[in-house]
Amino acid sequence: MAMRRRDFPKATAASAGARSFRLTAFIVAFVTWSYFFSPALAAEPKRVMLLHSFGANFKPWSEYGKEIRSELERQSPWPLDITDQSLIAARFNDENPEAPFAEYLRVLFAKHPLDLIVSIGAPAAAFVQRHRQRVFPNAPMVFTAVEQRRLRYTELTSNDAVVAVKHDLPAIVENILRVLPGTKNVMVVNGTSPLEKFWRDEMTREFAPFDGRVAFTWTSDLSFDDILKNAAALPPQTVIFWELMILDAAGVVHQGDKALTKLHAVANAPIFSFDDSFFGRELVGGPMHSVLETSQKTAEIALRILGGEKAGDIQTVTVGFAAPKFDWREMQRWGISESSLPPGSEIHFRDPTVWEQYRRQILLICAAFVLQAFLISWLIYEHWRRQAAEVAARNTMSELTQMNRVAGAGELSASIAHEVNQPLAAIAVHSSAALNWLKAKTPNVHEASAALAVIASESLRAGDIVRNLRALFTKDTQQSTTFDINQVIAPVLELMRIELQKCEVKVKTELGYGLPLVTGFEVQLQQVVFNLVMNAKEAMQQTPLPRELSIKSELNEGGEVQVSVKDSGKGIAPAELESVFQPLFTTKPHGMGMGLSICRSIIERHGGRIWVTVGKEPGSTFCFALPAA
Question: Is domain 481-626 given the CATH code 3.40.50.970 in the classification?
Answer without folding.
Answer: no
